[in-house]
Amino acid sequence: MEGLESARPYQRYWSPLSKQPLRVCEESNSLISDAIGVSYPIVDGIPCLVPNDGKIIETDDTSKPDVAVGSPDEK
Fold first, then answer.
1. Region (Disordered): which ranges (predicted)?
2. Which of 21, 22, 26, 57 fits a 20 to 30 Å CA distance from 4?
3. CATH, domain range 3-62
4. For the chain, percent helix, then strand, then coil, each to nearest 5?
């Protein structure tokens, strides 16, 4: 994934568990739910949002967003 351009297709995704917006993490190629600290993988460009596919992540990973989906910084 490359920059904000690649984040756009995912700007309307919400966590199936928390119902909160997800953000793109380019480092792990996943969508992150900051509300519950869960990472959902993106496989071959397709987000895997089945709750069983989500992984609980460390607090350090959720404290620094790569791209906040729907944020004012997004163009």
1. 56-75
2. 57
3. 2.20.25.10
4. 20, 25, 55
Long-range contacts at 40-47 (CB < 8 A, ≥ 24 apart): 40/15, 42/1, 42/10, 45/9, 47/10, 47/13
Answer whether 40's CB lies under 8 Å from 31's CB.
yes
**Length of the chain in terms of residues written:** 75
In angstroms and rounded to an integer, the radius of gyration of the C-alpha atoms of the chain is 11
For the chain, the structural domain boundaries read 3-62
Spatial CA neighbour of 31 closest among 18, 48, 44: 48
pLDDT at 66: 53
Question: What does pLDDT average to in each consecutive run of 10 residues of the chain (75 residues)?
Answer: 55 90 93 95 94 86 50 49
Nearest partner of 21 among 31, 7, 29, judged by Cα: 31
